[in-house]
## 1
Amino acid sequence: MLFTREQITGLYYLSVGVFLLFIFPMILGSAKEEVILKDDNFYRVDSLLPDSLFVAPTQAEIRRAKNPPIKIRKVREQGVVELNRADSAELVSLKGIGGYYASKILDYRSKLGGYFDIRQLRELNLTYFNLDSMSRYLRADTSLIVKRYIGDYTFKNLLRHPYLDYETLVLIFDYKRELTEGDTLTIKKLSAAGVIRSTQAKKLSYYFY
């Protein structure tokens, strides 16, 4: 029986197609991954192809491919930081506070003798820390501030305090020399004598008698 060129070509492609139809599922059976085509993008899903080359995806699988589940990260609840007890690790847990800012806060606390108000942090010019938004996470316990009589300190020691400058200390020690023996130097006396301003006396009263 004679065949035309077109018939021979057709029989060739038919035999190749039958071969591929039976051989490919055997080759691809180990991969067993399903691919869904959507808007020229491929999405991998968890379904497997056990015995066939392609299985049409279900509507649920298509919806999952279109809208993959979003993992929501649970935000750690921010605790209240006590400024007069906090260490560097606690301070850096606050938004806007890094290692450099934490060291400034601790150094200033040491010079002051403690914080009596969280608004004292404004004196440090912490540009990237928003005190207004973070105020609910801060507290200053004044009972942790250790007070002593201002007359018990030397000129040099008092000069380290942020609320006392050289000129003010000269006036304070001049006034101290005028006191009678046994008379104690206090912030109240300095304020009454006009040696220090009332606003300055109010701040200093948290640290000195």
## 2
Amino acid sequence: MIHLDYRDARPIYAQIVDGFREKITTGVLEPGEKLPSVRELAGELTINPNTIQRSYRQLEAEGWIATVPGKGCFVCGSEQCQNQERSRLFLAFDDTTAALIAMGVARESLISRIQKGGASHA
């Protein structure tokens, strides 16, 4: 379900949060869909259940998921979350674009990459 990269500088819980955000925004996980239990996901990823719990708490605080006592965690269908994620990604895009331009990358090169629409870049 979620892929962890132990060479990534981000903490494990942040990778889990980002993984779920991506799955929700891309429609892999749909509103109302039940997430794996903390124990189930911890066992699948072979990590401490407290890490999963921390990730779920953050996702819930941000409005991505809701916990139903005795039932589990479920994906929320909040358009606000979609808008927040879009804003976050645009900010990251803006920062990256500014850094690339500062490094001397031509605007035309950036435009060309955007026009490829996320296709593999060599």
## 3
Amino acid sequence: MEKKKVVVGMSGGVDSSVAAYLLKKQGYDVIGVTMQIWQDEEEFAQEENGGCCGLSAVDDARRVAQALDIPYYVMNFKKEFKENVMDYFIEEYLHGRTPNPCIACNRYVKWEALLNRSLAIGADAIATGHYARVEQLENGRYAIRNSVTAAKDQTYALYNLTQEQLKNTIMPVGEYTKEEIRQIAEEIGLPVAHKKDSQDICFVPDNDYAGFLEREVGPQKPGNFVSVDGEVLGEHKGIVHYTIGQRKGLGLSMGHPIFVCGIRPETNEVVIGEEEEVFTHELWADHLNFMAIPEMEVGDKIDLVAKIRYSHKGQACTVTKIEEDVIHVYFPEPVRAVTPGQAVVLYQGEYVAGGGIIIR
């Protein structure tokens, strides 16, 4: 029987490097690929520990591929990344929403573009170094399952993958803890065994989103801070500088802690309120994707657990499908800082049931 050919997306980090090693050890025919997605080489040359896609990533991934004795290529995905991730990120912020670009990148670049190109060169599947597992359930559907280590779980950013993409995906790292992965890398002498994890969004290496947006689209128009009742409290620097639940950096002295509890792009206002006004029992989401459970019909209701941001622990909720592409999510216990533009990811036990983008 011919060995299955797998393309491993190699970021130059320890996780994807060990993923390539584990698959080779399991008998797969492994090909390493780094996705070239950066737009401006000068800007990205300066990042030392780099996001998952800076110039240092190529050097590190190539050295790992040599050490593992696997073929290695760099594939150009600049166009796909700019259209599906950077342009989307800018557009969402300008409309008063707070996007998660890694989710868009996973769905449209790391999976759609890389998978299509990998299948076209004769591969059977793609693999990544994510801390998650792909399983086919008894109902026949493919789903993402939590990794064995809650500390590094990356399922939230993967809720949007399609059944077709999951069917052709392997995630070998999900069976290990981060410590175990580093230990494997050390034992086999990989040069990236102790490389730091990348934290920031790769195209905003200094984490200054507002600065990035101003460089891309020009200076932002100031507007009014207003109270929940509409009273003008002061002037803000432009809506891209704020996100729901924010307390610091507002430049308003009210004598007690205050929070951003709304952004109104149509009037260029940022709504300020008390902490209790940042809590809510409900949200609505669209751009739905169903994973462990079959697509809900309008009127269907189901009890699940929802995470409303990457770092959220998850909370019990009731999900009702109210329109063709809209769900209503009700939380018996209120949740803090529901943020339009972020994903709500729904879980059934250890599996991702589905999710969508929060609209309000």
## 4
Amino acid sequence: MAENLRYSKDFVVGTAKSNKPQIYYPNGNQKNVQDFGYLYNWYAAENACPNGWHLPTNSDWKQLKNAVSGDNVGSQLAARPDLWNDGTLERNSSFGRSGFSVLPAGSFDGKAYGNFGSFAYFWSSTEYEYYSGNAYYRYIYYNYGGVVSNYSSKGDGFSVRCVKD
């Protein structure tokens, strides 16, 4: 998909961290959904992709990263420099080259919204092997041209991109 998911299905719009499927408005504002899509906790992300699509695994994310040639993969995956905070990401000459159109929707940690305009976080379906309450995600941020992998609580809110089966 070339946009962040905006699918709300039967999900509850959450205001706190939960182990039940919930979605959140980017930066706490419903108006941001149009440009940035929803933020999903992992439980909602696992069920948000339409039929014939799936939440990407760590392997899917690695394949995407390897398919984008050259340095500054994060810059190539990003789009809309007007929505990113000023940094090395959008100043790179390869910014937006891939058409993947990553936007900085930020995150929700169950208490506060963070990094809107600076970070784009995306869930992976791959659970963290050392603690079942966590799962992997990828992120791109405004002052770095790469793509970073990490893990977080499944109750946190991140963006979703789906991969065709």
